[in-house]
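Structure ticket #2291
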Amino acid sequence: MGNTTARGSLDGPIYGTARGWAFDPENPDKRVAVELTVDGKHFENVVASIYRDDLEKAGMSDGAHSFSVTLPREYMDGKMHVVAARIAGTDVALSGSPIEFSHADPPEPSHVTRSDRQMPRLPKKPKAQGVPDGVSAPDSALGGMSVIIPTYNRGAELEKTLNLCVEAASGDAVEFVVIDDGSTDDTPQRLERLAKLWPNLRWTSVPNGGQGQARNLGVGMASHEIVMFQGDDIRPATDSFYSHHVNAHRLMPSLGVAVLGKIIWPDNADERISFVMSHVQGRGENQFGYYSLIPYSWVDWRFFYTSNVSLKKSAVPDWSTGGFNKSFRAYGWEDAELAYRLHKRTQGGFRIIYTPAAVATHHHQYNVTQFVERQIAVGSMAKTFLEFHPDVAKEIGLGKLQRILTSDKKDSAQIDDLISMIEGIKAWPKVIEQRYNLGSQNWHADLLTAVFELCYLQGFVMSHGDPNANYAAAYTYVLERFQERMATAASFEVFGRFPSFTLT
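Resolution: structure written out below.
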């Protein structure tokens, strides 16, 4: 294989088409050939010669250095495949390569949810009155991106994140807008110093008002049409992280399309990945539902994760009044609530394309106690969500519990006992984690799944606030759900039989 100074990026197969760019800075007027393979088999060499204005703005000669190739029809079978790209005649792989993909023939979008067990498919809805699905942002407006990062009292971690962000965005038209949400640590001083070093960093400090309000303010400061929401503990895993978001929007300029990137735990010796962390971001899907997602498929509003997601600013006419709902004061559901409103007001629905090539690492430690608290908060904010959208109760796993809470009130004398049982169950995985090596037994994963759902449901009941609600029946249902989860575990024989929690 020969040597080369050429470089490039594989932006992912979307709608059965592999796209990307290749450029040789030592020979800027030369068109670079790219070799593409699927599942390790060569299928085509293509010359990167298609014009893109973002490449020209990035200093790549006349900008005619991108490529677009339709993948072989035989791979449009709905199965998982791997596409790879390299500079032809060399071993130099394009950034982002290889990429897993799965497309059906024809590649029509379909709503992909976590699983039928946890996330039932959404019913088809009538055409909405609002933003037509065909309305697109002008191509000239999609050459750059504004990254909105809210932060609160995480100055040192934020600086580590921004260092990697700025490095990953080198050469791209990306600006960073940081909203300091009333931090009492040294966050403002750090941002003031960093802004003098990086001209593409803008920031402001505001009184603490929550992440949603901070994001709305950030979009108001954004210079670009494409806006991305990123957490202050989310760090690019590759140098092409931001370009994958921008390129996906250029391919799909509709205002009704958002781009979801992937989030993984970091792989370094300084940050231990606990069993809880592995579970909630893996098979448990308690934090992010990536485990069940098919690369480059459409997902619905529940996957609008503001840790790594982008959309067009014009999708919301006025972010100060129509952006993130300020009623969500704690963690959970404020991002999905915005996406659901966009889904209802956009003809054809608000669609999200899952683009795993835009991968970032998540730097946030969790143990059982911390994630239990998180789940209770998410359950509490689910109550706020349903106050605005009672029709989504079933889709967020609360349909039956909502009905039980509003059913005829029964004797509440058992409530304290039921709560004591719930607290005892929550203590079970904590003790295992502290003393008995959580994750050493197969059934520990089943236990975490059941306990974290129990906490979510408990948080919802606790936040109900209606003195006439049927709390005894509600807490009984919470315990019955836990019993069902554990009774269906493959290793149920380890525990024997669970008692019945039927209220009589």
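Closing remark: DSSP finds 13 helices and 17 strands in the chain.
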